[in-house]
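To close the chapter, one final illustration. This time we ask the reader to focus less on the individual chains and more on the assembly as a whole: which components sit near each other, and how the overall shape emerges from the parts.
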Amino acid sequence: MLLSVKGLDVAYGRAKVLHGVSVRVDRGERVFVVGRNGAGKTTLLKTIAGFFAPAAGTIEFDGRNIGGKPAEEVARAGLRYVFQDKRVFTRLTVRENIEIAAHAARLPLASAIERVVGVFPSVPRFLDNPAGGLSGGQRQLLLIGRALLGEPQLLLIDEPTEGLSGGAVEEVFVALDRSKGKVAMVIVEQNLSLVGKLAERVYAVKEGRIAAELNGAAVRDESTLESYL
Amino acid sequence: MIGIIAYGLTIGAILYIISIGLSLTFGTMRIVNFAHALAYTAGAYLLYSVMRAGGSFLLAAAAGVIIVVPLAWLIERFIIRRLYGQSIDYAIIGTYAVLLIGVDGIKWLWGATPIPLSDPIGEYVQIFGVDLPVYRLVIIILAGVIFLGLEFFFRRTIVGKVVVAGLEDKDAVRSLGIRVDSYFSIVFVLGSALAALGGILYAPITTVHPYMGLHVLLVCFAVVLVGGLGSMRGTLVASFALGMVIAITGRVWGPAAETAVFAVMAVVLMVKPLEI
Amino acid sequence: MSALTRPKVLATLRSFDLAVIAVLFGLLAWVLSIQRVTDFVIFAIFVVSFDLLYGQMGRLSFGHMLFLGTGAYASALTAVHLGGNPVLALVMATAAGGLVALLLGPMTVRTTGACFALINLAFNQVWHFLALIAFATWTGGEDGLAVWMQPVGPLDFGDKRVMFAFALVSLLAVIWLTRRLTDSPFGILLRGIKQNEMRVRFLGYDVFRAKLLAFVVSGALAAFAGGLSALNYGYVTPSFVDPGRNVEVIFACLIGGAGSVYGAVTGGVVYMLISNFLPSYVQRWEMLLGFALLVLVFRFRSGLWGFVVSRLGPRAEET
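The assembled structure is written out below.
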């Protein structure tokens, strides 16, 4: 059991956003999270990643209790979060974006770039461009490449395919597949047909609670997934 | 005319040197740091004391900057850090409290009477037929050097790049496992050291008194707000622009010089309000 | 006291608040001196006006002295140019404050946070300059103006007891007014703006008008305090507009407890006590004030009144 979340309660001020959420992820496993806008998916991921402190419940990662620990500590422990909206450091070049992640991972820049190439093959062409000039799909690949530099054991990815065309979506999942089995992943996805094709296990989040945990055949059917939202 | 321009550039240079730290602290920590004025004032007083003890201007200047560094670190560690992420009002009040304490401390140690210092170079140079103090030219050049140094720092060093990234998206930097706050602390201390330098450089041109920091700080707020929070280029432009406003207004109607700056700030803020 | 009777004590205090406050101030005047306590009372009005902006609406202004000064100078100028009728002077003072707030408000209330604090400070600085230098021929510059008032019927402000009584009644009226305001839907709206302005706007309320109204009321009340101040001292100087003195009202509001009229009054009195008596014992009292502010900011945000409420009030109470 790599990640074990039990009874998680999260509140914004006085408003409770997550109620008693429990999820688990095994080493190397890939799990999807679906739910409507505002259901609490991002809050769940961000809390696990350390950006919010839970009001109640426990988060255990790799045998350690990380609930309430700050995001940078959680990241160092091997749990990386990739933000929505494909946020790169727009004012820096692509090379500098990688440089910062390399610095954090204590990797020489050259090796870091090599590793990112594995995920984002055409990156050498863009190294000196401002990262803000990349397309959505390219940014997503850069973000994934960056996150993987620290050799995390678990990647939390928030809506990687949002706003991407079919080709770009495929590139993203090709990149993610390269780490399949080695790096566990929790992927928030709105695209239910995609989830149906790729997922083995799915959590459905509805109004701050886990409405269902689905495996196998139940996952294949879009309408089944939808019914839980 | 040349005199006004030179004076405006000198003031602008000083404002720039002091305002950098303020702008960076605004941009990185979203904190309005009234205690910034303390670094400035302390620099000036330390300059005075070391020179009085027999040191040369250069030695005293270096001493002033060096001594302020650990003080700034202490303030950051024990006050500023606790104000992170809090409502901005508490940051304002808290740092103002630090300023109060510091100013009273200065009054205690040095007394409240203003201390005039003299031009350390004392030479003049002729430009376009006007005699200008060399000292002022040195200040202007120094500001230019500092600007270049900062450009280098933020564009070429990894610490600078992390700060630039953190200014844009702090959480994304954290998600890479970097303790951004430590980098921001470095920037805070750097800014405070620059403020101290500003106080040291300006001291011979103005009089040294316990409230000099607050006085200048308000003008620096105007600079930072007009130039844009966390924007190095904006701070540069705004410093010199407001420096000229002060110089020109000062020539037309002496006492109104600094008030003119506030009028400008009010206008700018109304046209372009901030998000904090 | 059992947990059931504690809220009752608080509720009882609340319903007889005006009487209780009057008695307490009376006692204080008897113990200290009428003149000093009149000062306390007037400052309390000023703090209440500030709390309307800060405690209720969540906007910290670092330039509220602007309004105090406006009221003080308005009432002094009325006395000089329009005859020494104190009632007229006070009316003019309040009106001047409201007018200035109406003029500056549309520009400042659109801003928030640091921007709001600093833009008010900027205006305060400008005002101070105007009083000290630009309009010195009218304001008397650094020396200020003397204020002579004629008696109006039984109101002879030269008599310190009359001054005290009038000030106290004014304070009680202001408290009553403010309570009604804060308990009304308008007050709820203000607190909503403090919590989450955007949400209130999406709910369809005219947020700008509400903020402007609060700003004008606050400014008018502060100017009223300023007018009273000028009457009480018998003179007005630029120190009434001194931006450096903003820290006084901020400290008072914090130590009393922001967000509550009673907190504001408590804070005003406490600050006055400190600033009146501490300097005689402690030379470095400003440093102490700074430390006290830090303690308030880090540990004691709800202030004295907040502390009282948490002890005496029912569990999850909103003042």
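Residues 100 and 146 of chain A are 9 Å apart (CA to CA). Chains A and C do not touch (no CB pair under 8 Å). With these observations in hand, you are ready for the problems at the end of the chapter.
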